[in-house]
């Protein structure tokens, strides 16, 4: 049985991830990164037709949630889907929190 403090510790990272996923533009960003692999921010801006400030805002949320990674090369930033984090959300890992009897 979990103690009273442990659920908040376990659930807090998931709350940030699901909050990041709750926006259609952020889902579009993740989709583009899934299709393209590591992508320059300038290319994302062209494809998504977003102003730089809006794109930066959405990218920051996704990076902070751990759903994408950022690599800076010179003056350019490149973003990539964090496959291990995305896979964890789609796997039994989260399921085990809500359905402990169904876990392996």
From TrEMBL:
Coiled coil: none
Alphabetical list of Pfam families matching this protein: HTH_5
PROSITE patterns tied to this protein: HTH_ARSR_2 (PS50987)
InterPro entries, per database record: ArsR-like_HTH, HTH_ArsR_DNA-bd_dom, HTH_MetalResp_TranReg, WH-like_DNA-bd_sf, WH_DNA-bd_sf
Keywords for this protein: DNA-binding, Transcription, Transcription regulation
Segments forming domain HTH arsR-type: 6-101
Protein name: Metalloregulator ArsR/SmtB family transcription factor
UniProt keyword Hydrolase, yes or no: no
């Amino acid at each position: 049985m979990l103690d009273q403090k442990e659920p908040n510790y376990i659930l807090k990272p998931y709350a940030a991830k699901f909050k990041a996923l709750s926006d259609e533009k952020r889902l579009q960003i993740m989709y583009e990164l899934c299709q393209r692999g590591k992508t320059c921010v300038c290319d994302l801006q062209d494809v998504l037709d977003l102003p730089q400030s809006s794109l930066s805002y959405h990218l920051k949320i996704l990076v902070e949630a751990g759903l994408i990674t950022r690599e800076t090369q010179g003056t350019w930033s490149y973003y990539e889907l964090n496959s291990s984090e995305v896979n964890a959300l789609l796997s039994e890992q989260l399921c085990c929190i809500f359905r402990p009897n169904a876990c392996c």
